[in-house]
Amino acid sequence: MAKVDFSAVADFEALQAGEYECVFSFDKVAPAKNSGKDTLYAEYIVGDTNQKIFKSYSLEPKALWALKRDFIRIGASLEDMNSSGADPEVIANGLNGVSCTVICGEPYWYPLNPDGTPTPDAKLRTSFQEVKDPTKL
Fold first, then answer.
1. Measured between alpha carbons, how far is 74 from 68 in angstroms, rounded to an integer?
2. What digits encode the pLDDT tens for the residues 8-21?
3. What is the pLDDT of residue 104?
4. CA angle at residue 15 from 71 to 70, to 5 degrees?
5. Rg (CA), the chain
6. Which residues pair with 40 in a beta bridge?
7. How far apart are CA 102 and CA 100, in angstroms?
8. How many CA atoms lie within 13 A of 21 on its CB side?
9. Rounded to 5 degrees, what are φ and ψ at 53?
10. Residue that wins the pLDDT comparison between 12 and 67
11. 91-134, pLDDT tens digit by residue?
12. Which of 67, 22, 12 is nearest to 45 (CA)?
């Protein structure tokens, strides 16, 4: 059995509010842990740091606006995004490796107790807001 040394492995720190140059990376479509609903999981890799901003997009009809907005801003075609039979996995795979600017809000603690305080095992997380509209750079 292989032995490894985890002592030199650093945890990524949550990114502060701001704009970050990233590369889009599609991960998978799978059921969400809590709801069981189909969800598209993506990563935005920050510059040369290899730090990742994780984003999950619900594929429920009421929530598709966020996926559509961000995918169009990354470079998906309006024709693909307006199709009634669009396949989000195909579109996401076509965007792999495309550069974009991600806007992050203030980091937040997760998970929280019912009173809103962080649990003992809570971690500070990056707050993904949206992909910046490239026409407003």
1. 10
2. 666 678 999 999 99
3. 97
4. 10
5. 17
6. 29, 57
7. 6
8. 5
9. -105, 120
10. 67
11. 999 999 999 999 999 999 999 999 999 999 999 999 999 999 99
12. 22
Q: How far is CA 97 from the centre of its chain?
A: 14
pTM confidence score: 0.87
- Residue pair 52/45 in contact (Cβ under 8 Å)? The answer is yes
Instruction: Collect all residues with Cβ–Cβ distance below 8 Å to 70 and sequence separation of at least 6.
Output: 57, 130, 131
3-state secondary structure of 74: helix
| Tokens representing residue 106 in the block | 């203030």
Residue 109: its pLDDT value, please?
Answer: 96
β-sheet with 18-31: strand ranges across: 51-58, 38-46, 18-31, 99-112, 118-131
Angle between helices 64-74 and 88-95 (to 10 degrees): 30
User: Strand ranges (DSSP E) for 2-98?
Assistant: 18-31, 38-46, 51-58
Instruction: Give, in order, the Cα–Cα distances in Å from 116 to each of 33, 44, 111, 125, 137.
Output: 21, 28, 9, 15, 36
**DSSP track, 41-101:** EEEEEETTTTEEEEEEEE-SGGGHHHHHHHHHHHT--HHHHT-TT--HHHHHHHHTT-EEE
